[in-house]
Write the structure tokens for this entry.
Amino acid sequence: MFHSRDLSYLRSDVRANCEAFLALCRADGLNVLVTETVRDEEYQRELAAKGYASKTATVPTFHACGTGLAFDICRNVKGHEYDDADFFARCAEIGKKIGFSWGGDWKNFVDRTHFQWDCGGKYTSSMLLKGAFPPNMPLYQTRPVEKRALVRGDTGEAVKTLQALLVSCGWELTIDGSFGPATQRAWGEYVGAWITETTKK
């Protein structure tokens, strides 16, 4: 039996957007913990038997090892991991803004802990089982957040989004929505690294 919460098991595009999701949740004061990324068939059958998954979902699909298109979360507060509906609703708003489908919107088996990349509902579990997988998920941070470029001194949600991108890529920043010297330095390093990588191709 195998299951893991390690983000490294997610497909690279999904992982990048999951990290952006976590950063944006932190910026919004949401204490999120990823509880699962992948699982094997034995563990999937156990979940179905216990009612934690649909009775017919006895084979992992979006959570399958080697697929890595989904992750589950909880509130990282001991004893109150799943009892705050507002917490999950706010997380869902962020997740759907990034491009994930949310299990809380499902009709047959509501799963508000679950997020997956299915290309806007175009790919189903049965399609994955037949070997048809969704294309790469557009990286949330590459989407324009304003018509003009951000500059030092700017504040607001657009700056928070940029800071979340930089944090998800490894820079240490406070996601406070203020474009100060630390954000400017990190952004310059990010752009420089991108240019270097691009010229290698």
User: Anything to note?
Assistant: Strands lie at 3-4, 32-36, 38-39, 70-75, 101-102, 114-116.
